[in-house]
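Write out a sequence, fold above all:
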Amino acid sequence: IGDYSTISILSAILGYVKIGKGVFVGAGATIIPHVNVGNNAYIGAGSVVVNNVLESGVYVGAPAKKIR
């Protein structure tokens, strides 16, 4: 987990996940194993990240998709 990142309550970060700097993971979000989350990404509450997040932006949904 990189510097200045926030992992909110009830989030599930499952094995071998790399989280970059300045990332926010919303409450109840899930990140499956072997996924990388790049710098300055925002993962919305309740989202499920199943693919690598390589660029900054806002990701929401199940599976998480970039909206901004």
The chain has a mean pLDDT of 97. The chain is about 0% helix and 35% strand. The radius of gyration is 10 Å.
